[in-house]
Amino acid sequence: MTNPFSEADQPVSARQEEFLRAHHRHHHKITFGRLSLFILFLGLWELAARLSWIDSFFFSSPSGIFKYLAQMFADHSIYGHTGITLLETILSFLLVTLLSLAAATLLWYFGSLSEILEPYLVVLNSLPKSALAPLLIVWLGTGTNTIIVAGISVAVFGSIISLYTGFCQTDPEMCKLIYTLGGSRRDALHKVILPSSIPLILSNMKVNIGLSLVGVIIGEFLAARRGLGYLIIYGSQVFQLNMVITSIIILCLIAMAFYKLIQSAEHYYKKKY
Amino acid sequence: MQPILSLQDISYSYHNLKGETPALTHINLQVSEGEFVAVAGPSGCGKSTLLSIIAGLLVPEQGKVLYRGLSPSDYCQDTVLKIGYMLQKDHLFEWRTIYQNVILGLELNRMVTKENTNYVLKLLEDYGLYAFKDSKPSELSGGMRQRAALIRTMAVHPDLFLLDEPFSALDFQTRLAVSADIASIIRKTGKTAILITHDLSEAITLADRVIVLSKRPAYVKCEMPIHYDISREDPLAVRSTKEYQDYFNQLWEVLTDDEPIL
Predict the structure, then answer these.
(1) Do A25 and A130 reside in the same domain of the chain?
(2) How far apart are CA A246 and CA A268, in angstroms?
């Protein structure tokens, strides 16, 4: 349906133009603020290291990090370490998402099951998962498996609980509609619970990707010969602070990239519906 | 003639740990084919419970529900009588288009055939929603959404319509128009309908017979056939007739005789 008075057809008024200009000015101001804070921070850090206000052996310096990064690119080591951490994070994130969706669905479908399992889920969710890491090493050895399981263990219980809670908060009248039309509980799951929970599932994925990364890094601290977590722990042991801080910066970039990726999936979904 | 629906001595209570709340006591009710019945009563008197029992969503603790003389335990209820239920809110799913929403019942009953979808498209066309069939529910007005909900109910060819205050979410002006509109659509198909409402004037305007329930635990306090000499198409004309005033006064007295309103 086209509205004859829709905004698109009308010429832009002077006040609207003024509003748009003000909006852009504000936007530029924010970007400028963010950039200058970043540059100021790097500048001060570099200056402090050069003028020996801080000991660059312990605190590193932007130029040191940059040199180390260039060296990592030159000997290709960056690809291996970043790649393995990425792979482990993505795998554990995907497994967390699948497992928690499946578990939350089962819990919703079988009401008594959720009542039986509730205290166990609460305990497992509040347990500090790093305490499990040594156990995982004994059971699964050191390597990718252990690290992926560590990544899963950090995120999965909270994810199950929040998905299940979300499923239960779906308007019961919507399920009643399905029953009045002759549908079963399974139909209610397929036609109401899952489709209405897509925004919840997406926002849950945002949390999961961060937690999976936490779990993977903990795993790499304890049980890896490769990966960014390994570089951080190794670097700190041999006092190669450039290595440690460079790895942390790469981690920041990875976390941001994942977050943006899911955010754009969210935007896509919102646009579509 | 065999009544399409007959409730015999129905009682129902809700239970929780603090105790028992009786909702319905000894309800007897007969509805014949093609009749438009309104059930009115004070809010919270168990009207919706009654509809849920008729629809087979709740099993009565006492008494029997007979569909065309048969109890659901004898037969598969669907083969004897198909029931279409309209809830208070339209509950059109935002993640489906209007067309996908109105064929929901067909999907659930595995009835998505060319014949049935053509029927749905015809309904959409008849009730002025064809142009919106690919729109999202949020793009429709309240009245149009109610029509879409009615089409969703009609798509599965029900014999009996259960209307659970389907107009209560609308503003007064829309409500008058939409309720008359939907009642006339149902009348034209010659189908039977039971309308639940707490609005006495709505009941008197729309129904062939008004049933007044007492406050909880509900029993049938009074039944009154309603007849007008004029057509019911125009709700305002109906509401300004002498008969309407008389019916209203009589039923109002019944509704409020033993309990203070405030």
Answers:
(1) no
(2) 33
* Chain A contact set for B94 (CB, 8 A): 273
Same domain for A42 and A142? no
List b or e across B223-260, with b for residues whose CB sees 16 or more CB atoms inside 10 angstroms. ebebeeeeebeebeebeeeeebeebbeebeebbeeeee
Q: Is the ipTM of this complex over 0.90?
A: no
Residue B55 distance to chain A (closest CA, Å): 7
User: Does A191 lie in the same domain as A82?
Assistant: yes
Query: Which residues make Cβ contacts (< 8 Å) with residue B262, sequence separation at least 6?
Result: none
Strand pairing of B5-16 and B62-67? antiparallel
* B167 domain residue, yes or no: no
Q: A210 at the B interface (CB within 8 A)? A: no
Per the structure block, which two tokens stand in for B95? Answer: 């993640």
CB B92, CB B145: distance < 8 Å:
yes
Whether the per-residue pLDDT at A148 is higher than 90: the answer is: yes
A178 touching B (Cβ < 8 Å) = yes
For B100, nearest residue in chain A (alpha carbons): A191
| Cα A125 from Cα A163, distance rounded (Å) | 13
- With respect to residue B39, please indicate whether it lies within any of the assigned structural domains: no
Q: Given an 8 Å threshold on Cβ–Cβ distance, is B93 in contact with A187?
A: no
3-state secondary structure B49-86: HHHHHHHCCCCCCEEEEEECCECCCCCCHHHHCCEEEE
Phi, psi of B106 (to 5 degrees): -65, -45
Residues A213 and A88 reside in one and the same domain: yes
Q: Give residue for tokens 């007044």.
A: B212
Q: Which of B108, B110, B116 to mutate to test binding with chain A, by most A CBs within 10 Å of its CB?
A: B108
Q: How many CA atoms lie within 13 A of A175 on its CB side?
A: 17
- Tell me whether residue B92 is in a domain: yes
Is B93 within 8 Å of A195 when comparing Cβ atoms? yes
Residues of A in contact with B136 (CB under 8 A): 273
Reported as a single tens digit per residue, the pLDDT across B200-259 is: 888 999 999 999 988 888 888 888 899 888 888 788 888 888 888 999 998 888 887 766
In a mutagenesis test of the A interface, which of B85, B91, B156, B165 is the best target, namely the one with the most A β-carbons within 10 Å?
Answer: B91
What pLDDT is attached to residue A104? 96
Q: What is the pLDDT of residues A72-123, one digit of tens each?
A: 999 999 999 999 999 999 999 999 999 999 999 999 999 899 999 999 999 9
Pick from A214, A194, A208, A188: nearest CA to A99: A208
Domain span at residue A202 reads 66-272
